[in-house]
Amino acid sequence: MKNLLFFGALPLVLYPFIAIASLMSLASPITGEEPILLVIVARAFQIASLMYPLVYFTSLARATSKRKEDEEIAIKIASIPLWFLMILGALLLLWIIVEKLFN
C-alpha cells in the first residue's frame, strides 16, 4: 500500500507547474472557431488535472484509516490515484488525437 501511495504522490512534485498551465488554459477565451469536441476534451483534461490533489489526498486519508480494518480495501483505495492518472493519460491522448483530426 505504501508503494501505491508513494507512486501516486510523485506527480504532486510537478503539480504547481501543471496547475498554472491548466489555469492559464482555462482562462483563455474560446473564439468559437474551435471544434466543440476539441474544447470539451481539452477542458476535461484541464479540470481533471486540477482535481488530482483532491483525489490523492482523499485516497490517502481513506486508505490509512481503512488499513487497520481491512488491508485489501485499503490497497484498492490506495490505487485510485494511479487509476486517475491513467484516465488523465487517456484524456491527454484523446486531446492529441482530436487535435490532429481537426488540424
* Share of helical residues: over 70%
- State the total count of DSSP E strands: 0
So how many helices? 5
Strand content: under 5%
- Mean pLDDT over the residues: 94
Estimated radius of gyration: 16 Å
Provide the structure class: mainly alpha
Task: Provide the succession of SSEs.
Answer: HHHHH
Termini separation comes to 43 Å
- The low-pLDDT segments are none
Oligomeric state of shown chains: single chain
General form = elongated
Largest sheet, strands/sense/barrel: none
Transmembrane segments: 37-61, 73-98
Keywords: Membrane, Transmembrane, Transmembrane helix
Polypeptide structure, described:
This protein has five helices and no strands. The chain has helices at 2-9, 15-27, 36-66, 71-78, 80-102. The mean pLDDT is 94. Helices cover 81% and strands 0% of the residues. The protein has 103 residues and is mainly α. The longest helix has 31 residues, at 36-66. The protein has a domain at 35-103. Keywords: Membrane, Transmembrane, Transmembrane helix.
Write the layout of secondary structure elements.
Layout: H1 2-9, H2 15-27, H3 36-66, H4 71-78, H5 80-102
Which keywords apply here?
103 residues; 0% strand; membrane; transmembrane
Summarize the structure.
This protein has 103 residues and is mainly α. It is 81% helix and 0% strand.
